[in-house]
Specification:
Helices cover 36% and strands 15% of the residues. The protein has nine helices and nine strands. Helix 1 packs across helix 5, helix 1 packs across helix 9 and helix 3 crosses helix 4. The N and C termini lie close together (10 Å). The structure holds phosphoric acid mono(formamide)ester. Phosphoric acid mono(formamide)ester binds next to helix 2.
Length: 302
């Protein structure tokens, strides 16, 4: 993994995922160590973020590294028309690793080709969010004690949801059975279903999950992302299509956990928060340890 960019979850192998998860478990036991002293990590966020940016920054700070960067492009020379190509060329000179979120699909791949240091994709449009996936894998393994042979329900915006796209690609390495629950307008794109067909994996599509929910090991809720819609009327029509309430979890498996990459809007009612099946806040905390594992692996420190 040394010096390797992480643009798509498919840039890493199954063994590399497992290595990251082992390291994340080590960092969870000891998240404060001075092993990034002298390293500079750039966090370039051209799109809003709370968890991804702050958990990267917390991860680096906990290991003694320095952070440079920005949380909105309005304060940078991009607002004067500087290209992404030039911005990445510059930031390569100032840092040892670049973490970037950008609204355009493919922007992270471009950055990785231009940069002289590794690039970690922190989300590129509706395409991929690989570090979210690694923390999701960590959360699934931690709660289920395995990644193999699980039933994962993906609910909500499966069309534009980059987190479900990356998670599907990763979990397809572990003989997962998928249930896709979405409104017609937000179905999982055909390319991802073709990938499952090629791997011989089972998946089911429905717009009503109450019938199957007792089979779930993981319910992965997602937000309907207003920012991806060009037609506000279409967003209004689907925005509250799925709202998970505590009474809907009755009869589900004991090991079952509800995950969500967050932020949520309405799709998980707050009455779920106190349920033993709610795991989304712990999931976000796992992001710190997983990102420590990713950064130190890519820098060749671990
Ligand atoms: N999960 C996630 O990407 O959250 P943020 O948008 O707050 O970073």
């Amino acid at each position: 993994m040394k010096n390797k960019s992480l643009v798509s979850i498919t840039d890493f192998t199954r063994d590399e995922y497992l290595r990251i998860l082992e390291l994340a478990a080590e960092f969870e036991k000891n998240p404060r160590q001075n092993i990034l002293s002298g390293y500079v990590i750039a966090t370039l966020f051209f799109e809003p973020s709370t968890r991804t940016r702050l958990s990267f920054e917390s991860a680096v700070s906990g290991l003694g590294g320095k952070i440079i960067g920005f949380s909105e492009s309005a304060s940078t020379s991009a607002s004067k028309g500087e290209t992404l190509y030039d911005t990445i060329k510059m930031v390569s000179n100032y840092s040892d690793l670049i973490v970037m979120r950008h609204p355009l699909e493919g922007s992270a791949r471009l950055a990785s080709e231009v940069a002289s240091v590794p690039v970690v994709n922190a989300g590129d449009g509706a395409n991929q969010h690989p570090t979210q996936t690694l923390l999701d894998l960590y959360s699934i393994q931690k709660t289920q004690k395995t990644l193999d042979n699980l039933k994962i329900f993906m609910v909500g915006d499966l069309k534009y949801g980059r987190t479900v796209h990356s998670l599907l690609m990763a979990m397809s390495q572990f003989n997962t059975t998928f249930f896709f629950i979405s409104p017609e307008e937000l179905k999982m794109p055909d390319g991802y279903k073709m990938h499952l067909d090629q791997k011989g994996l089972e998946y089911y599509e429905t717009n009503d999950f109450s019938e199957y929910v007792r089979e779930a090991d993981i319910i992965y809720m997602t937000r309907v992302q207003q920012e991806r819609f060009t037609d506000p009327i279409e967003y209004e029509r689907v925005k509250n299509a799925y709202v998970l309430r505590r009474n809907m979890l009755e009869g589900t498996k004991e090991n079952m956990k509800v995950l969500h990459p967050l932020p949520r809007v309405n799709e998980i009612h707050t009455d779920v928060d106190t349920s033993p099946q709610a795991y989304y806040f712990e999931q976000a905390l796992n992001g710190v340890f997983t990102r420590q594992a990713i950064i130190t692996s890519i820098l060749g420190i671990k």
